[in-house]
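Re: [ENG-882] Designed sequences occasionally contain unexpected residues at chain ends

Forwarding the minimal case from QA. Structure tokens:
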């Protein structure tokens, strides 16, 4: 039986399902992924067999492709949240892990593009961890 994952954007206007399994889960530290996420790395799931089904808000999805590259980002035009996209002429589904509402049973396969990681992205496992926002 195929896996079923549900997801949405931050404002909730765009919702989707992914039917099928993910083959790979990578944390990409390249400068392009840092720019389009505003974080140390992108966290993307990849599948060549899963199906993406938009449940609501498909018209709110904007796709940006960086010219002369394969770098692509889909996002909600209302809230800016990263959303799934289809790449390689329909052969590859890319799903930002953070937009999933369902639980994942997999962990990342690897950190990739570490040679181009941000200079502040070192020793993060040693930074203080808090369960909530700090007060004040």
């Amino acid at each position: 039986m195929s896996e079923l994952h549900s997801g949405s954007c931050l404002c909730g206007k765009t919702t989707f399902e992914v039917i099928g399994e993910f083959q790979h889960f990578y944390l990409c530290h390249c400068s392009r992924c840092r720019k389009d996420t505003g974080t140390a790395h992108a966290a993307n799931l990849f599948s060549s067999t899963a199906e993406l089904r938009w449940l609501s808000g498909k018209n709110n999805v904007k796709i940006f492709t960086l010219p002369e590259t394969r770098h692509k980002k889909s996002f909600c035009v209302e809230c800016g949240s990263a959303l799934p996209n289809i790449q390689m002429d329909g052969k590859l589904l890319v799903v930002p892990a953070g937009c999933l509402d369902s639980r994942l049973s997999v962990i990342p396969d690897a950190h990739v593009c570490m040679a181009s990681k941000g200079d502040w992205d070192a020793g993060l496992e040693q930074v203080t961890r808090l369960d909530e926002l700090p007060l004040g």
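QA comment: On inspection the terminal residues look reasonable. The mean pLDDT is 95. Proposing we downgrade this to a documentation issue.
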